[in-house]
Amino acid sequence: MKNFSKLMVAVFMLISMNNYAQQDAQYTQWMFNKLSLNPGYAIANDHACASALHRSQWVGLEGAPISQSLNVRIPFQGKNIGVGLSINHDQIGPTNSWQFNGIYAYRFNFDNDHKLGVGLQGSLRNYRIKYSETEALQVGDGSLPTTDESRMIPNFGVGLYYYTPKYYIGLSAPKLLEGDLSFFNNGGNNSDFSREEVHGFLMAGVVFDLNSAVKLKPSLLFKYVKDAPFDADIHASLIFYDTFWAGLTYRLGGIGNSVGESLDMVLQLQLSRAIRLGFAYDFTLSKVRDYSDGTFEVVLDYCLNPGHDRLTNPRFF
């Protein structure tokens, strides 16, 4: 009975995410994974960087989301041009999605400290549903596929990323086209039943020097999806000696009368000038907490650092 209850919750959440909430994978450590959200970030610093992130959401709940993200961004020295590659994988229940994003960005330098990255992104998404792993409520329903189905969905997006050594603000829409995600066979247009919606993101962050050893870094992420409730991540971290980060995030949303979706702990460690390791754990606030053991993330970030100069404040972003 317990496994059946978990399965029912997973199915309900899958339906909810596809129809009323954000369809793209969400990340607690989005502030270290911004290339997945904003192509303008590809030219945000002068060093080539790569990051890898894994997220297991609602651990212990059958069919719960599992996501991975791999990002690479490479600036061309002296040309204010950057290119990037973002690969994102998302699995929820019987659905499996791979998305490949190619990114080009140009940087406008207003002075030594104030800069604007403008990015364009082309993407190709492979969306697959394993109907062989599902059971129809009514056997023989001809409108439902009985074999595994997949579809390739092209898209494109844009992003602006304005930053200084002390703060940043970004606005992006990684997907500007609505893609048909439906495999139902009723002889008509099924895109109204299930489609890929336009996503919009507004992000911002700032760094305050509290004293010579401690900095405070608040960050905000607002998410927009058509016909979905307002959603946002509100985050603040303390940075000790530019090496150890400890922060909390409050995520709006949730189901029913919950006070939010989650309260998240974020820890980061700057292992060297080039390598940073991060961990996050989400304490679920919605009713899903009765069926899962929370959510965890791990991220590894590596940046080439030519010469022996100290990494500057934009690395905080």
Molecular structure report:
With 317 residues, this protein is mainly β. The radius of gyration is 20 Å and the shape is globular. A hairpin with a 2-residue loop joins strand 3 and strand 4. It has a single domain, classed as Porin, CATH 2.40.160. It has a 14-stranded antiparallel barrel. A two-stranded antiparallel sheet has the order 8-9. The N terminus is likely disordered. It has 1 helix and 17 strands.
Please give a handful of descriptors for the protein shown.
globular; two-stranded antiparallel sheet; single chain; Porin; 14-stranded antiparallel beta barrel; 317 residues; mainly beta; 6% helix
Gist?
With 317 residues, the protein is mostly beta strands.
